[in-house]
Amino acid sequence: MRTRGHEGRPAITVDGDFPGGNIIVEKIRGTRIRVHQDPRDTDGFWFYWCFRARGAAGRRIRVTFTGGRVFGPRGPAWSGDGGNTWAWTSKAATRLGTFTFLVPDGATEARFCFAVPYTEADLARFLSCHAESTFLSVKTLCETRKGRRAEMLLAGALDKTPLYRVVVTARHHACESVASFVVEGLLEHVLGEDPDGDGAWFRDRVSFMVIPFVDKDGVEDGDQGKNRLPRDHNRDYDDRSLHPTVKAIKELVPAWLAGVKTAALDLHCPYIHDERIQMIGLPDERQWAAVEAFSSALESVQRGTLRFHAKDNIPFSQAWNTARNTGKGLSFCSWAWKLPGMLLAATIEIPYATASGSEVNACTARSLGHDIARAMRAFLERHATDR
User: Fold this and answer.
1) d(Cα 100, Cα 39) in Å, to the nearest integer?
2) Whose CA is closest to 381, among 204, 240, 224, 237?
3) Does the pLDDT value for residue 11 go beyond 60?
4) What's the pTM?
């Protein structure tokens, strides 16, 4: 939307017409902007939004959201370089559904988002840094309903039958962008060199299958993804799957496992105000025992600033993790846990902005990915004889 300029300045425009964009503009008057997030096919309230403002250089804008509480503990994230890099504004700049921001002089555009976003362009930048690696292969999982390519990444031991296989999924809910930076960190650890030799250990023994965008269309379109109608991607793993990516995962993963001992991780982000890294339990004692073992490994090896504490995990029947909330369809982890040779099937929730007091950003989330990779080695070495 465009409004008239004043004092000889250009009019400010606001839109979400770019990958991951999501905004409905109600009104712009000078530097005062009134908007709300687009829920699209979401069942109930959710909080994802992402927009750009043009013509605001050198001006303090005031943005009011009318669609509920949509600011996390660090306020909005913002980018002045077209979405390549992001920083948090400040919770202090928000009040009662409104944030204010002084757009720097010379900024042709300023982008704002409820958290640091991650789309196909970000994945492409990451993959370009590893284009020469012989331990990473980029495949196509399937074509999405809207004709996009859903990527499937294979990493680690690719030229032989490995001792172990690990399946990693992310973005079952399109808006849960921080999970993608964790995926990058995990892959960096598998593909890189480190003092403990983890990368070499993985490349000799473990094959990874990573599905970076289960809801690829939602990621690019800027959807909420959570509680999507008619069906949430992470409740689509029963016999009546609707989504092409889920159907492809259900077809390809069992054949790929081929009897090899396996672990599965599904990376998510929790509610906008939750500030703890957590693992989630299924109604299965053996699954919870495996989660506790992996949690112990992560606690013992972590080095990054985003600290995980096993006491924050949510066993089945506690907090929101009940049959009433999870009984709307079969989740990825519920499905994966039943596959032959599965040693671990864990859902990990990574906060959007703050984790146990520490700032969540692209760098710290990648460091968490490194820690999760370290924990995976420790878990496989200690528990591969289980089950």
Assistant:
1) 23
2) 204
3) yes
4) 0.96
